[in-house]
Records
---
Amino acid sequence: MQKIMIDLDETIVMDGYLKAVNEYKKTNYQSEDIDSYYVEDILGDEKEAFLDYFYQNINIYQDIKTLPNAIKVIKNLTNYYDVYICAAFVDPRRVLESKKMAMYKYEWIIKNMPFINPKKIILTGSKDLIMCDIKIDDKFKNLQYGYGKVKLLIDHKHNQKYSFEQLNSYNIRRVYNWDQIESILLEMRDTL
Ligand SMILES: [Mg+2]
């Protein structure tokens, strides 16, 4: 079976960091307002204080939204593909505190995706070293280099600066939702 590596944040779950920023600042930012990969960049000078607060108090995975149909589609894909969930957890700005993120992410995947073998959960800081046939991620740089015959970039405001030509030159295809991902991958499963 072909191996698929699927990112977690903003690929399966969404808006956790946005919600944390909004609760901290008593604001109501929407994902369309955020151009930066790191939502908290919008806080400017308050970012450091927010990160201290965030790592001491918040588990965004306790109550987090998922992209529509993400879990249902991934479950279906396990019938045809060897599916791995691969989440980065190392925050270079808070190296020691990052260990909590590994635990929170692992817990969320175990609880919400029981059809994924726990041995197929990869928590890392070096996604580019993981061998796979298909990659699905919202971060351009995670798809730009490394393995993958098929690379799907989930459309988000923060990655809209990359043009079709730029994506094409790295063999990356922009996708808009999980229903589309499902039809692409089911259609190509015999030809890969
Ligand atoms: Mg992501």
---
Amino acid sequence: MLVECKKCGAPLDVKENDWIVRCGYCGSTTRVARTRTLAAVTPEDWSPPKSWKPPAQTGLPTQALKKRTLRAGAGAFFGTFFTLATVAVGVLVPLFAEGVLTWPFSDAEPPKAVTRGLDEPPKGAALAELEEKHEPEPATPMQRETRAHRAGTRALARGSAALSAGDLDAAIEALDEAQRALGRREQGVHRLRAQVASRGAREVGLKVVNRCADAQALYRSLRRVGAERAAGEQFVDGCPRP
Ligand SMILES: [Zn+2]
């Protein structure tokens, strides 16, 4: 079966009973059940790509990932294996160089997914330990939406507090942020905008008398957040609406 690495999107070859798969490119470990299936049966002529370039939507740098060295977690077996392999290379490479042996592969061996099949999926503490090793996954659109929603809600609260404290400029900034996060039609945004518009109109009305430039600057700020309508009616011939 071919599944997709949850982190970098690389195709990984897993066997039917494999419960957990470790990506040979980005090194992340994922439960097979949580991966997307690319092919129910691995095609016979399929071989893993020699390097993998994560697609832009994974949020990873788009440079090609090469096979990574296995971490200690892969077990003493691999450690010993690689030590022996290093020694073997020292002996075999000169033989290849002299043409005594011929290289059986056309190129360097492509990376393989390291898999672990378990008859019984682990439970309780064993499962928690495995889960902990999973690297954080990139934010889903829903998580991003939730985050934006929280930021917007915080901005609304900040805007209300600023209005109570009489800081209209800070309220306008907070409203701007809330509108970007939640949209202009959201109920709380609508309410804060009405309050900012009403307070803004009053302040423009006061400033128009002898601080025309300030009144015009405030009007421009209100216009930026769509709360300028009532303020616009405060301008007079001696101090026109900008
Ligand atoms: Zn990966």
